[in-house]
Amino acid sequence: MEVSQEETVQRTGSAASEPASDHMSQSSLTNGKRKAETELTRDSPPLGPKRIASEAAEGDAADPPLSKNQLKRLRKKEQYEIYKQERKVKRKDRRHAKQERKRVEREAKIAAAEAAGIDPQTVLRPPQFKPILVPVGLIIDCDFEQYMRDPEIVSLSSQIVRSYSVNRKAKYQGHLFISSWGGKMRERFETVYGGVHKRWKGVHIVEGEFREAGVEARHIWESKCGGEIIDSLKANDELPAITYGDNHEPIPEGSEPMDINKSVVYLTADSPYTIERLEPNTSYVIGGLVDRNREKGLCYKKAQECRVRTAKLPIGEYMAMQSRFVLTTNQVVEIMIKWLECGNWGEAFMGVIPKRKGGILKTDTSEADQADENEDQDDDHADEDMLEGDTLVVDEAMNGDESGSEDEEVSQVAVP
Length: 416
Known about the structure:
Layout: H1 5-41, H2 49-57, H3 68-82, H4 84-115, H5 120-124, E1 132-141, H6 150-169, E2 172-179, H7 183-191, E3 203-205, H8 210-222, E4 242-244, E5 249-250, E6 261-267, E7 273-275, E8 282-287, H9 298-305, E9 308-311, H10 315-318, E10 319-320, H11 329-342, H12 345-352, E11 360-361, H13 365-377, H14 393-399
Parallel strand pairs: 1-2, 1-8, 2-3, 6-8, 6-9
Antiparallel strand pairs: 4-5, 4-7, 10-11
């Protein structure tokens, strides 16, 4: 078979061009790979709302689109991660500043004692006293986990740790109960906190609801091991324990159901009743609910369904606040403990409510009026303090340090 010269030249040219084309294709693949690696290693900008929405829309067509609330939660989660390191640095700076302030105060006390010719150890050593157990139950009801998000459960866990610390260091100690023990909070105590609650003294952990804790407390009163009835708990015929309405009138006879359990009082801001003094052989329930007031009247409804008494703390009668204020669980416990010591609600509130909240006693009429004016002006501004993550909470549980972080997540408890 004869082949023409022209065909031979064409075949030779094509054969020579094939290696060149292979080389060019390999070079282009290498460049494309390098470009892809560069794009992957490049720091990507944070997700914005438009990008989140677009990426959600580019997903599987079968998946339903994200709602506004879901997009809002994604943005909050993104912002939380972006500023996580910054918050950690701020907490560290606050901790160091507090340590430095304590060091300066300690040196000042030592200098003053030496100048007065007193042994500095007698000044630095905290006053020693033997704690007195009293027949008052403080029950933290943890049966609201389904209404809380994970960060709020973390916040409630730290508040329970501080509640234990406050009660353990108090001069007059109540019987602390934690009811509805379980779920994510129990898992957190057993993992993150290393099971520290198992070494707590004087704490009764009940897996059942708060009424079971109340029954256990009543058995303690009946066994004569409840403690000593101190002066502040002794009956006062002139001052009823709980009053009704804004005028603080005695509870009318027959206004309460006949089958109501009078040995348990559920603290809730929605109650028409007000606590005037604590009663011996009585348990006070504090709703362990951290929800930034999303669930309105939840504790009051639950107390009515369970047929127990309800009441609120008389904070509005004693304090003039410059802003709306919601107490945390551990602050309510501390207020109750302070009242056992002094028997005065005003002193108890002033000793617990942070000064940055601007609360003053209503004994000074002019200052109270000014505070009321400021409260009306700021009525639309809610308290936005939130516990971003407490890195010291394990140390508090181990050492009983009641001084927590400056920012607390709010919880729905007994504030009018």
